[in-house]
Amino acid sequence: MTATTHHRICPLCEACCGLEIKTQDDKVISIRGHEADVLSKGYICPKAIALKDLHEDPDRLRTPLIKRNGVHVAATWEEAFAEIEARLPAVIAQGGRNATGIAVGNPSAHKIGLLTYFGKLARALGTKNVFSASTLDQMPKQLASGLMFGHWLSIGLPDISRTDHLLVIGANPLASNGSMWTVPDFKGKAKALQARGGKLVVIDPRRTETAAVADAHHFIRPGSDVFLLAAMVHTLFAENLVRLGAVADWVQGLDEVRQAVATFTPEAVAVRCGMDVLTIKTLARDLATAERAAVYARIGTCTQTYGSLASWLVDVLNTLTGHLDQVGGVLFAKPAAFASNTAGKSGTGKGVSTGRHHARVSGAPEVYGELPITCMAEEIETPGEGQIRALITVATNPVLSSPDGPRLAAALDTLDFMLSFDIYLNETTRHADVILPGLSPLEDMHYDVAFPQLSWRNHARYSPPVFAPAAGQPQEWQSLLKVAAIVQGKGANEDADLLDDAQFAQDAERLFGAHASAVVAATQGLRGPERGLEVALRTGPYGDGFGTKPSGLTLAQVKAANPEGGIDLGELQPRMPEMLRTPSGKIELAPPLFINDLPRAALDLARPTPDLVIIGRRDVRTNNSWMHNLPVLAKGPFRCTALVHPTDAARLGLQDGGQARLRNGTRQVQAQVHISAEMMPGVVSLPHGWGHDLPGAQLGVAALRPGTNLNALLDDQLRDPLSGNAVLSGVAIEMEAVT
To answer: How far is it, in rounded angstroms, from Cα 566 to Cα 365?
Structure first.
């Protein structure tokens, strides 16, 4: 039989590469990069090849599971929804809306059905206990962007194809192909930068894959990024290097920033950073004098107690050096759909706020509608009004991905009811009473909602399903709507399509007023996320406005462009001031939340640095913990090793390939040692997302080499107080050889 060719967007990491998938009957026979794809131009990484393994994985759930007498057994969809109806409303009736909690993981960002319908379930629950993976790795960046530019996803992106100088701090885009920066084939783009005479500089406590190809690499002590960045800002002021450039008319708060960094001289921070004074000053000077330059910083700068301050100071540097909103500097994407900074009145908005409510136990403030995920265990454990007694998880595995997983696992066992939307029986969902599986990515349509807002180039791409789902298998958005209906007292037998029609009509009335009926009529024949996508495209910045701009985009046009790799909407362009959504209509260079937190950092400058600290790391073959269950990604050298500098290994009596015990107070784990000069002395690196040796999980390949759960070593009470982000980096540990 002749093979059939499909063009598909890879959903396994933020790079969102275009794929060419060949199938025969119901089997994948090859996966390669799609040369014509407007975003990735044929580039792929090993994760894309693993889509075949994921689709065929015998451990991937295909029917609902219900826990009976402590054992998960297969059930029909009707039985699963009936079980939910029998148990979840009873918890709400007894304890109120806040007796429930809901947590969502980052795979939902890669599935339009989960991402656009998760909120409908959360609103139906009406709980304040909303958690997500954002407070594990990115909330500081979102908070800084929101306060400075007016929206949580107005993220400044390096214009890598035209810049001359790229400074990367605490990020490894050669392995990730971007994080909150969708940039497939970073290596190729970095080589092109260097070939045209540009410079790539990396600051990281490990000589990462990105650092290895850089023109310069500087070690830095984990957790001290805020001091380095503040000292660089100080240098710009002290040496009269501040140039606001084209955004000068839209910047306010310059004097407040100058005063706030007055004590952070390079001389004051050098020892704490583990860098010399001249290096700090040179970094600032090179950035200021480069014609086209950008600073990019990610997980290493976010996952620390000063994550929000560090994220803010990155954009302060980009602004003060005149590179913000400049070609070759830092620009903002203009996506075809779903971006709030392309909707409504240009140049002004309501901005963002935090602290609209607080966690019941710790008092941590709400940020972006969420509480820190590290509060979840204590909210389950602690009696009183609002104690979580029922939890819904959506594509998340916090027992492995969140600090103090053992505590959370024990807390989950005390719940009255737990429901999980997930494709695996994993370390978290093993605690669930009901598991509702989603589709294989190859059985689902695909359009990236979030990542075009973070992409190096503007585009619109749609992927139809490769395979039809099994008969009777609902799509994830339908399952979310049915559970929402159960929570609202409508019962388990409501038709998901009719629920969706009613919800869409209400949304249309709210958004379009007198034109609502015309919008409903214009989208007849569409349901679920496809209908929402049609509206978002047609009302977006390139859309046809439902006929008012005849040459504009529609869903039909984007679908038709699938074989050609999507629609290229061009390079990023300056967008000031139209993209601003701050109440002032200005770039808020000095948000009071950050200015008022800098003294906390200043007081910390004199604190002695620990002898040994631990950080995580990223591997090109891993993004989520379940990827360890895919043979094509799991094969090869064992990757869950503790990297230790040779001088530390000699001091501690560690042997390469031997075992070591790592301690943080009463918490301890054991890991295999790999001695490596790529580490900064005094720093150990262990990847996160491992620890596949817990009873009840069904991950056969991952269990063969379970690895060590780094997060079992970390304290769930350590957070960046502004964003609620967990502290995963720079944590002091002790280490000893295990005979």
So the answer is: 41
Contacts of 59 (CB under 8 A, 6+ apart): 424, 425, 629, 698, 699, 700, 701
The domains spanning 139-252+288-332+338-344+575-602 and 610-738 adopt the same CATH topology? no
CATH domain 610-738 topology: Barwin-like endoglucanases (2.40.40)
Distance from C-alpha of 138 to C-alpha of 180, rounded to nearest angstrom: 8
* Paired tokens of 557: 């046009």
Q: Does the pTM exceed 0.90?
A: yes
For the 139-252+288-332+338-344+575-602 domain, the top CATH level (class) is alpha beta
CA distance 96 to 389: 10
**94-144 pLDDT tens trace:** 999 999 999 999 999 999 999 999 999 999 999 999 999 999 999 999 999
Q: How far apart are CA 198 and CA 165, in angstroms?
A: 6
Distance, CA of 483 to CA of 125 (rounded, Å): 10
Burial of residue 187, with CB atoms counted within 10 A of its CB: 0-12 exposed, 13-18 middle, 19 or more buried: middle
| Rounded Cα distance, 662 and 552, in Å | 58
Q: 594: which 2 tokens? A: 């950050």
Q: What is the dihedral of CA 370, 375, 377, 381, to 10 degrees?
A: -110
**Spatial CA neighbour of 712 closest among 655, 664, 677:** 664
Measured between alpha carbons, how far apart are the two ends of the chain, in Å? 58
- The encoded tokens of residue 171 equal 């990020």
Domain boundaries, the chain: 139-252+288-332+338-344+575-602, 497-560, 610-738
**Could you tell me which residues are beta bridge partners of residue 169?**
203, 297
